[in-house]
């Protein structure tokens, strides 16, 4: 497996119960999460939520103050 070089346009941190998480955003819009134990950036698979009025629940998103967001 070849090692890929990735450049980030933005890096963000998130606080979790297990400690800080680092996310990187490339200029092409790809999102990566830093894996501390392996010391590598892992691509995060992203998908667009349906815009057709589907009532699919979104789990795990947190708004300001820790309030849940359902979509």
Notes on the protein architecture:
The chain is mainly beta. The protein has a domain at 1-47. Helices cover 0% and strands 34% of the residues. It has no helices and four strands. The protein has strands at residues 10-16, 19-25, 31-35, 40-44. It has a four-stranded antiparallel sheet, with no helix packed on it.
State the helix count.
0
What is the terminal-to-terminal distance?
Answer: 38 Å
DSSP strand tally: 4
Strand order of the largest sheet: 1-2-3-4
Helix-strand sequence? EEEE
Note the quaternary state here. single chain
> Helicity range of the residues?
under 10%
What's the alpha carbon Rg, rounded to whole Å? 15 Å
The shape, in one word, is: globular
The residue ranges in which pLDDT falls below 50 over 5 or more consecutive positions are 63-71
Strand portion: 25-35%
Helix/strand/pairing category: mainly beta
Features:
0% helix, globular, mainly beta, four-stranded antiparallel β-sheet
Mind sketching the topology for me?
Layout: E1 10-16, E2 19-25, E3 31-35, E4 40-44
Antiparallel strand pairs: 1-2, 2-3, 3-4
Summary, kept brief:
By secondary structure, this protein is mostly beta strands. It is 0% helix and 34% strand.
